[in-house]
Amino acid sequence: MTSSYYLGLDGGGTRCRARLVDAQGAMLAQAEGGPANVFANCEAAIGVLEALIAQVANEAQIAATQIHIVAGLAGANVPSVQRRLADWHPACASLRVVTDVEIACVGAHGGAPGAVFIVGTGSQGACWDGENFTLLGGWGFALSDLGSGAILGQRALRLALLAHEAVVPDSPLTQRLMRRFADSAETLLLWSQQATTADWGSVVPEVFAAAQQGDVHALTLVRQTAEEIRLMTQPLLARQPGRLALMGGLAQPIAPYLAEALQRALTPPQGDALSGALALARRA
After folding, report:
1. Complete domains list, the chain, with CATH
2. FRET partner for 67 with CA separation of 20 to 30 A, picked from 10, 43, 171, 233?
């Protein structure tokens, strides 16, 4: 009798993670790869995903055709992307593609109804009523992603350039950021023309470190991000009061700057996005 195996894939704008378990939930293999945002670069994302599928199957020494996959992918909420993904048929027993925020929502509440707002390289919210999802945001860096690392990083570099040109006073943060580019506006310009969302977000740790040291510009930037998170979470709390989890790379560092009412309304996540993907795979 053929055994069943379950693979969760969590593909974001910075990295993709994979976790393979058996029918009893025992972990067999884990792996990590590069970005897997299917809106930003669908072909490259699929390449990352297929490499991870092959890697974990090989590590566990099982055939990929025995694996049931749920992939939660950044950008999978866009209808045109969904149509492209309909033609993706990796070797597996079954495949379900959802967004990364959906698997995060299921993982955060152990499969029970609830809401989540992801603040990572990008941002997106979701509510889960036990059967269906309602999504909020997630329309990309140019139009959406309020409260995200990419937006915070871009604002920080804009401010660093303003300070470099003496439009606003400089600070230790703006000086350090410009030193990344040899104190050259042209170097920053050329970099910006090729920068990905992950590149913009790469300066975020410096912003939070400077905020902890009282840097006035860093504090302004971080507080603006916190206010955007408050704004985006209000509709989620209206749908699922008392059952909102904040997840993603910014969730921990931004927490002290959030409005007190929002801090009280948040609930700690029970599991991560991969646990949500695996729960959906077993549910199917």
Report:
1. 5-109+269-283 (3.30.420.40), 113-268 (3.30.420.40)
2. 43
